[in-house]
Amino acid sequence: AGGRGASILCCWECVCDPIIMATRNLGTMSDSVLQDYHTRRHTSGLNTEELEAPLALVHSTSRINWLTARYDPDDSQRLQLLATGEGGFEELLGSLDDNLVIYGCFMFAAANQVKCAFVSWVGEGVSGLERARVSMHRSDMQAFVQPVASFDIQEREVPAALSAAVKASIATQVGASLLSYDGLAHISLDTNNIEAEREESAEEVYGRSELEPLPSAPPTTDADTGLLEALWAGEGLPAARAAALAKEVPQSLLGEVLWVWGGHEQLTPEAAAGLLSAASEEAAEAAEAAPHPGEALRGEGLRLSLCLLLRVQMLREGATEWGVEFARKRGGLELLSIAAQQLVSRHPQWMLTRHQALSCLEAASCALLGLSAEAPPPPKPSSTSAPLANAGGKQKLQIAQQQP
Q1: 296-309 CB burial, b ≥16 within 10 A, e <16
Q2: Count of beta carbons in the 10 Å neighbourhood of residue 119
Q3: Distance (Å, whole) CA 245 – CA 241
Q4: Cβ neighbours around 375 below 10 Å, total
Q5: In angstroms, what CA-CA distances link 74 with 78, 130, 291?
Q6: What is d(CA 65, CA 63) in angstroms, rounded to the nearest whole number?
Q7: Which residues, listed in sequence order, are joined to residue 71 by a DSSP beta bridge?
């Protein structure tokens, strides 16, 4: 039993510690083989000498940001440069050939970092023998390129769709180190065109822009801020406040704001909570339970028009009871908080809507406490008060307590 245990321990050491195993094997090598073992790198024999200079150029600060390589037709163990370019990953895709095995790399940018990614491609016309060679050479090529992410492109797709898949894979492989300040991975696959690609990807990821109205909303050709101002003032909003709010509405969204406001007469606190639920969720049931325009807002989250509808309802005169019912009994404040968090994660660039969402949260918070959202400014210390310099600590404390 003791001998068998020692045998298992020896095998375990060899498996877990390659250095132990290699050291034991050195004793069986001749002097010439031993010298070769220490001086040569053990690989599959893949020759990448021709790619060293181009790869260094890709890794440098030059505009060359991708390369591809193929096997030398006269030497299956040697790679030769196929193409380089300045247009990033999508330009690299143009060099793929259905009759070739191709290795490549490209630089991408994320969170103010520039990193390298590796790609491999096996065309449909490649023979079985050549495909078997890829399994031996791919790891050596990866070690040569030294990427942070790797991909096997298996079939041709629309470049935009393939780019989206690659970005998602990069985010998964590399992880949190690529996240920006907003908690998202804004990845650009073309380091020479980062800003343009960032704007384009924002539209892909986050859908319509902030200033683009809902498809079901009427056009804004006949709308103006004066009409909004008059409508809101007629519903009990102070004239100055109505004018200020109307000026905050972008021209392109006037039609949507007026359309959403059209259902305000049926907007009970319970209906308002249902409308928020419908906007935050994808569920059809939530939209059916919500008032107009619940179906149109389903899954859209906090829109500027929805924020203004709720905000005006809570700011108008005599709306204290409505605000308390909405914020406290119907869970409106909690629903608003959830919707605001979704807004930040889904649309971090929607700053106008974020401003309205924060103002709406402020109004709901005041309503939860039974306070008016339009509270007067804190009172100033009376001019008859004793000067602070002569009052001592007690008088200072009395003045500080006057301020809420």
Answers
A1: bbbebbbbbbbbbb
A2: 23
A3: 6
A4: 9
A5: 9, 14, 73
A6: 6
A7: 79
Which DSSP helix (H) or strand (E) runs through 78? strand 75-85
- Per-position b or e across 134-164, b if 16+ CB within 10 A of its CB: beebbebbeebbebbbbbebeeeeeeeebbb
Task: State if pTM tops 0.70.
Answer: no
Tokens, residue 378: 């804190």
**Residue 187: strand pairing partners:** 110
How far is it, in rounded angstroms, from Cα 224 to Cα 255? 9
Would you give the distance in Å from CA 249 to the centre of its chain?
A: 26
Q: What is the pLDDT of residues 29-75, one digit of tens each?
A: 455 444 444 444 446 788 999 999 999 999 998 899 999 999 999 99
For 232, phi then psi, to 5°, come to -70, -35
Two tokens, residue 74: 């006269």
Instruction: Give the residue among 330, 164, 331, 322 at the shortest CA–CA distance from 236.
Output: 322
Would you give the DSSP letter of residue 372? -
Q: Is 379 left (phi over 0), alpha (psi -120 to 50) or beta?
A: beta
Interior angle at CA 354, CA 351 and CA 360, nearest 5: 150
- CA 369 vs. chain centroid, Å, equals 35
